[in-house]
Write a structure and sequence with these properties.
alpha+beta; seven-stranded antiparallel beta sheet; four-stranded antiparallel beta sheet; 1 helix; binds FE2/S2 (inorganic) cluster
């Protein structure tokens, strides 16, 4: 009698094993589907971008094509201006001024070394971002710069527009 049971036991065992594997596969797939509905948790604002150590920035202007920003350094102070034309969003081109000037921007002194020209429809901006010609309806945005607390890199917050008196001084 006991050897009559063996094939049945074995079949039951295999059936159970097969069903178990099926359930496991479905569970894994369901978990993956559910996981895809939950966004990755990020404690960093997605609009902040590390730009590298301040020492990587030369005195004057550095254009960062990925972020489409122009970062200016004058000694220990930094500021960043958007390179996105306020007309229809083309990237402006910086042109060095033959004679840099000092102006007042937002109540603070600012050395103007460049002007910005938009290749799409001819808008022109002064070195502080003020629109002076063409269809651009408003000045180029200035963005907040800060230092990353963990590694001291320069960080830009592309969601945080600041006034033209903004300067980050690096000690
Ligand atoms: S997009 Fe710059 S002038 Fe039109």
């Amino acid at each position: 009698m006991s050897h009559d049971h063996k094939p049945t036991d074995r079949r039951d065992f295999l059936l159970t094993l097969g069903a178990g594997a099926g359930v496991a596969a479905i569970t894994v797939q369901a978990a993956a589907s559910l996981r895809s509905l939950v966004p990755n948790v990020s404690y960093d604002s997605p609009t902040t971008v590390k730009l590298g150590p301040p020492s990587d920035f030369p005195d004057g202007l550095k254009f960062l094509p990925d972020e489409r920003v122009l970062v200016f350094r004058e000694g220990n102070t930094f500021h960043a201006i958007s390179a996105v034309c306020t007309h229809l969003g083309c990237t402006v081109r910086a042109e060095a001024l033959p004679n840099p000037q000092t102006t007042e921007a937002g109540g603070a002194a600012l050395r103007l070394t460049h002007r910005f020209l938009c290749p799409c429809h001819g808008s022109e901006y002064k070195g502080d971002g003020t629109n002076v010609a063409g269809p651009a309806p408003k000045p180029l945005a200035w963005f907040r710069l800060l230092l990353a607390p963990d590694d001291g890199q320069l960080v830009i917050d592309l969601a945080d527009e600041v006034g033209r008196d903004f300067r980050l001084t690096v000690g």
